[in-house]
Each structure stands twice: as structure tokens, then as C-alpha cells.
Amino acid sequence: MDTPSPARPAASPPDPFAELDATAQAELVRTRRATPLELVDAAIARIERVGPALNALAAIDPDRARAAARGPLREGPFAGVPFLAKDLLAVPGLPYGAGSRLLHGQPAPGGSAYAQALEDAGLIVVGKTTTSEFGLLGTTETLACGATRNPWDVARSPAGSSGGSAAAVAAGLVPMAHASDGGGSIRIPASACGLFGLKPSRGRERDAGLPAGAPLAMMVNDHCVSRTVRDSAALLLATQRVDAAAPLPPLAARDLAPAARPRRLRIAVYDRTAFGLVPHPEVSAGLAAARALCERLGHETVDSAGPRFDARAVSDAFFLLAGATVAPLVAQVRQAAGVAALPSLLEPFTLELAERAERAPPGAVPAAIGALVQAGAAMTAFIAGFDATLCPTIPILPFELGVLSPARPADACIAFTEVLAGYTPIHSIAGVPAMSVPLHWTAGGLPVGCHFAAGVGREALLLELAYALEEAAPWRHRRPPVSALPKPPEGPWRSA
């Protein structure tokens, strides 16, 4: 396929902050070795220089960010650190487009407890990152914003729906960015872009504004993509629920720090997707390397068939509920603007899902929810037999732009999604924590994520494992071809 080849960014001017993670940048501010304005100015310069090659931002407001940087300094763990928020999260003072022409450029309808937690953590939101329309597709190439490109290969997608955040962090525009996950939308872009991506347990994070009665609300979590494990852990600590009604006991800082003596884990390893597909050979190689690394770290690995559930029923239920989620909005637009206006405001895939939900027989939505609950119970029972599980994050390599375009027939998009998301949705359905760890790169330089999961509430166990993997097989020295990051120093880097 023919894909536009964007101009490569100009040579990088001196930037002492680009290669630092968010924790290190916050430390510079805390010790008065840098000001928030210096950090924000440097991030804006990187965005302006490298951003156009990726098209990862839906909106940017330098004046607002600089005003925040000049204002009173928050006392949170990331005080003064520049940040980007996915355009499915309403951030007061910034536009809220949800990847749609219908809302593009509209002011945020209000805030949320999660957005407030980001502000209280001291993060300065510079702009919004691109996402698929309403987060419905596992790519980031909308009719509203155009295609977001993967910095490892600009002809490929960064995946989705948090593709803009993943592309921006992988290219070093900011050290970490907000992401959300309803079936893999943190973990899959993290895999495609060579980042660390943790999806927390259901109920761990504060409310991000999604109505509790939305059909897929049970599956959605908000967190981030990052270049280091410690940034993800610190943000989890800052945004978790600590109220009396929280469904999980709050985590303490000591729970999320690297362990002096990591525990020995029993890890189930499987390679088949929910539909029984075998992964690409390079993905299999990454899985084998990750397994060997876990064994070198002292863990026991066990061959497994993986969780067993009705994959067809889950896929049908997921897309029916996605359609039921957007159907009221489509009906509202149809009533206000007329049927003829719909194709100019909403994407073909969105409209088709809504129409299918509208045609569904009575009782279809409760039945679909029941199918997900049943599958989630199967996953919960499976994972209870192990400390953790290991599988690929996605069974294929990062895919070319256009393959999952929202303008393609809906059945083609669904069929490809069933391949792409062959591992990750069941963890969202069961509400268990899961993470993609960047442990493998192909000979051609494409990242391959390895996926670990544990039981509900066991983020501390996963992060303990992630720290050890990061230490044993560091990935921060890797740089994509399109990047604002300086070349790493020469050194004896280890790999999985």
C-alpha cells in the first residue's frame, strides 16, 4: 500500500530533559535544578519538531501549559512534569474530541476524579493525544484527525485506541502519557511502540467520567503508557482510589517499590489466542525469550493451554455492547441533524455498530453482559491456579496503516480485531491487572511486547516482576527512527 512518508524531524537541539523519565524530571524540579517552565518549554519544542511526523496529538495548548508551569507548584509526585492526556479523557480547559468529527475541538464537558488526580499529582497537561473514534477500534487513524504513525515504522499503526499516547511517549515527546484500556488499548499500543503498559485491576483507579451504566463500563480502566516501570507505579499510587468505598485495599508506596528479594513465582505460559491462532514466528521468539528470562530470574514456568472460554460469544457480545454504547448518541445526532448528516459526523464503523445494536432483539444486551460475566469467571478460575501468566500481547507484528481503517467494512474490522486482540480482552472482562513489557525486538527493529497478568488486586506482584525484567533486560536505550530522544551512550546493553 502507498503511505505518505512524512518529513523526518530536524536535527535535535540540546535538550537535557528528553531522555529522563517523569520521576527524574520531577526530581529536578524538587531539587530546584530545573523549573516546570523549562520542562514544559522543552516538551513543547519536541512536540513541535517531531510531532508532525507522527500526527499523535489531537490538540495542544502551549499557553495554558506555560501558565500552569508559572503558577503555584503542586506538591504531588510529578510536580512540574509535562504530560499528555488521551482524547477520551475530559480535561478542563482543553478540547474534548473523542476521536470524532462530531466533537472535534469542543471544550471539555467537565472534569472527573481521575483528571483531578492527575492535576493533584502535579502533572501539567500540555495537550490531548489521538485516539480512535470513541475508542472503538484498535488503531488510531480517524476521519477527524487522520492517521497516527508508529515511530518505529511510519507506514505502520501504533495500534489503539491509545495509539497517540504510545507514539508520543515512544518518540520521547513526553516521558509518559495517559491511556485507557477496555480490551487491550493500553497494552496493545505499548507492545506496538516498545513501551511499558499496565492495565490496573477493575476498581483500582478513580472515576474517569465514564457513566457507570454504560454497557462496557465494567471493562474500562485508565492509567498510562511509560518508558519506565517506576513512572507507571508512581502514577498508579497517585491515582488509585483511597476512599472508604474503594473495592480494593489501597496500595502503599512500599508495595510498588522494587523488591530487595523478589518472590519466586509460578507462571503459566501459553501462546494460542482465544480463537486458537498461533502467533507470528517473531512473536513466538519473543515469548520464548521472555520465558527463558523468567526462568533465569528464578521463577517456575508451566506450559498451559490458557484460559478456556467461548471466544465467539465474547467477540459478539463485545461489539454488540460497543454498539449499544454509541447507539443513543447516534440516535440523538440523527434526530438533531438528520440521517443525511450522519456520514459527515460519524465514522462508518461507528454507525454500523450502532445500527446493529438497534436491530438486536430484546434481551440481547443483558445476554451479552451475561456472556462476558461467564467468560470472566473462567479467566478468574484459570488465573487462580498460578501466581502470574505469560503470553504474547498481540499475535502479530505492528500492522500497516489502513488495515483497520474505520472506513473499511465493519465485518473486516471485526475479523482483524479478533486476531489483533486475541489475548488481551479477557483480562479486561475479568478485571484482573495485566501488563505489556517490551522485552523483544525483531531483526527489522520492530518491538514485540510480552504480556503478564495476575489475580485481581495483585498489581504489586506484577510490578515487582516488571522491575526485575527491566533490570535484567533493559529497554530504555532503544530509540525508534522517528524520535526526539538523544542517542544513548555506548555500553554493554543486555537483552532478553
Q: What do these coordinates show?
A:
The chain has one domain (22-472): Amidase signature (AS) enzymes (Alpha-Beta Complex), CATH 3.90.1300. The two termini are 33 Å apart. The protein is built from 15 helices and 13 strands. The strands form three sheets. An eight-stranded mixed beta sheet has the order 6-8-7-12-13-11-9-10, with helices on both faces. Strands 1-3-2 form a three-stranded mixed beta sheet. It has a two-stranded antiparallel ribbon with strand order 4-5. Helices cover 36% and strands 13% of the residues. It is an alpha+beta fold and 496 residues long. A hairpin with a 5-residue loop joins strand 12 and strand 13 (447-453). InterPro entries: Amidase (IPR000120), Amidase_dom (IPR023631), AS_sf (IPR036928).
